[in-house]
Amino acid sequence: MNRLFWIIIAVIGGVVLLLMANNDSGTTLGVANDAFARAAYLGIWGIVIAAALLGSGIRLGDFARNIAIWVVIILALVAGYQYRYELQDVASRITAGLVPGSPISKRAGDGSLTVTLAKAANGHFEVNGRVNGARVPFLVDTGASMIILSSDDARRAGIDTGSLSYSVPIMTANGSTNAASVRLDTLQIGDIERRDIRALVAQDSRLNGSLLGMNFLDTLRGFSVRGDELVLSD
């Protein structure tokens, strides 16, 4: 170990002397001084690592295998970081296929946001949104002028349905009924969020599910149907 120490000191000293002697010319042994210094730095570390390896008794084959494993791990991490947005999109699409109603959110480089909804087996566009933080499944209904919550979904979102005034007449698939006007603290569809947005709560159980109506869709930059997908642009 003492011999190795003095060898490294001698190499460092020789490199420093060469760089000092060739400072004015800008090159050492035909190589730019900066490049020569970097090569010498890496070479010295290589000597230290090689000496540590030989002194540890680890077989060269095992050492090479471990280095290869770490190189693969590092390359995988770098590739994952570089393609993180593409991988996130793939993961979202897989989730949407496994969990019906899962929105796929994607933000472009210009900051614009899109949320894509896949058509359900019944031919309608459905999405699992959140109202006041509670999960609420919605049917996207361009024929509904307002967001309409079923009484069950409203209670799940923390709305006291018993204290509401049901004075707004509405028509549902089960016939006509009355609804109450409320303000939702938050409504989230994927990464699109709206605050303090107006909605209706249907009375009793006359509405089987909640509807995502035009007063939400009108807040968007646009929406379009592309085959079996509904794309919301914000």
UniProtKB/TrEMBL annotation:
Molecular functions per Gene Ontology: aspartic-type endopeptidase activity
A Gene Ontology biological process term: proteolysis
Ranges annotated as spanning the membrane: 5-23, 35-55, 67-83
Entry keyword set: Hydrolase, Membrane, Protease, Transmembrane, Transmembrane helix
Keyword Protease assigned: yes
InterPro entries in the cross-refs: Aspartic_peptidase_AS (IPR001969), Clan_AA_Asp_peptidase_C (IPR011969), Peptidase_aspartic_dom_sf (IPR021109), Retropepsin-like_bacterial (IPR034122)
The UniProt record lists the keyword Cytoplasm: no
Pfam families per UniProt: gag-asp_proteas
Name of the molecule in the record: Aspartic protease
Lineage: Bacteria, Pseudomonadati, Pseudomonadota, Alphaproteobacteria, Hyphomicrobiales
